[in-house]
Each structure stands twice: as structure tokens, then as C-alpha cells.
Specification:
Distance between the termini: 28 Å
Strand content: under 5%
Largest sheet: none
Number of strands: 0
Order of helices and strands: HHHHHHHHHH
Mean pLDDT: 77
Radius of gyration: 18 Å
Structural class: mainly alpha
Number of helices: 10
């Protein structure tokens, strides 16, 4: 909780001071603080989800923080007022990491894999594969023009959002399955 208390004001201060182009040293301190706490903030939701009795989320506790961290990295390219090729490549690497972690997570879920059985989770999961894959290819392979960088970054970000929605929908579907809930409760004893 203390991380959020420090991160929020530091991020706000960093942004405001950058916009005002004022107090350069204070802005740097705020930016470094924000950067240092960023990974913890990016994975915070995943840790909270995996610490529940929802079978899919609980079972995915080893991979879910990596999925969310990869997705958070994708936002980097969109934070810059003038998207650059370097930021787009960082976002592409984040998308590739997110896709890899999600693949491992779904494979390890085994019979709990509600990504295939729940229609909503399946649709979001397909989009979570398509958008970041296309965006990563655009960011890594195509010539870097501002419009292409923005388009690639946007596709990666949409894919990351779809990944989170797939996780939410798959978890909700697994919570509706009484057998999965009981099995998960028995195995955690």
C-alpha cells in the first residue's frame, strides 16, 4: 500500500514538472522514484488476483505477474508525446514477454484452462494474441515513421488490455465451476 502512496504523487509530480519544464532536479528525483516503483506497481494487481480463491487466478500465481509486467511495459511507447522507434521496440519486447508468459500460464493451467471453454475469455484471448503480435511486428520490422510507431504501439496496448480482460473473464468462469473451486481449496491445504 505504501508503494501506491509514494508512486502516485511522484508520477504526478514528474509529469507536471515535465509539462511545465520547471524544477529539473526535482523532476528527475520524481522520475527515478516512479521508475524504481514501476515494476512493483505493474505487478501489484496480478499478486492481488492470484492471492484469491478464484481457481484460475490462484493457479496462475507464478506467471500472472510476468503477464502483467509485460503488458505494463507496452505503455512506454504511448507515454512519449513524440513516439520514438526505441520506445516502440521496448513496447514490442514487453508484448513478446507478455505473450510468452501468457502461453506458459495457459499451458500450466491444464484442466482449469477456462480460456477455451468460456466464449468471452476465448474472444479476448484471441485479440490478446493478434493485436500485440501485429504491433510487435510493426515496431520491430517496418520502417519507423511516427504514424507507424503510434499505430504499432496502439495495437500492442489494445492487446495488453485484451490480455487483462481475458484473465478476468477466465477467472470469473473458473469461479462459477463448483468442482474447480473445491479442487483448488483442497489442494491449498
Amino acid at each position: 500500500m505504501w508503494r501506491l502512496t509514494v508512486y502516485g504523487p511522484a508520477a504526478g509530480m514528474s509529469w507536471i514538472l515535465a509539462e511545465l519544464d520547471a524544477l529539473e532536479r526535482l523532476r528527475k528525483v520524481a522520475s527515478v522514484t516512479t521508475g524504481a516503483l514501476g515494476p512493483a506497481i505493474a505487478t501489484y494487481t496480478a499478486v492481488l488476483l492470484s492471492d484469491t480463491a478464484t481457481p484460475v487466478w490462484h493457479e496462475a500465481k507464478a506467471e500472472l505477474p510476468f503477464v502483467f509486467a509485460g503488458g505494463a511495459t507496452t505503455a512506454l511507447a504511448l507515454l512519449d508525446r513524440k513516439p520514438s522507434g526505441v520506445a516502440a521496440r521496448i513496447a514490442a519486447l514487453g508484448a513478446i514477454g507478455e505473450l510468452a508468459a501468457a502461453f506458459v500460464m495457459k499451458r500450466r493451467l491444464g484442466p482449469l484452462d477456462t480460456y477455451s471453454s468460456d466464449e468471452s475469455a476465448r474472444r479476448f484471448d484471441r485479440a490478446a494474441l493478434t493485436f500485440p503480435g501485429a504491433g510487435a511486428i510493426g515496431a520491430l520490422v517496418l520502417p519507423q515513421r511516427r504514424a507507424m510507431t503510434a499505430l504499432s504501439s496502439g495495437a500492442i496496448l489494445v492487446g495488453s488490455l485484451c490480455q487483462r480482460m481475458a484473465v478476468v473473464r477466465a477467472g470469473t468462469a473458473s469461479a462459477r465451476d463448483p468442482r474447480a473451486v473445491l479442487d483448488q481449496q483442497r489442494s491449498s491445504r
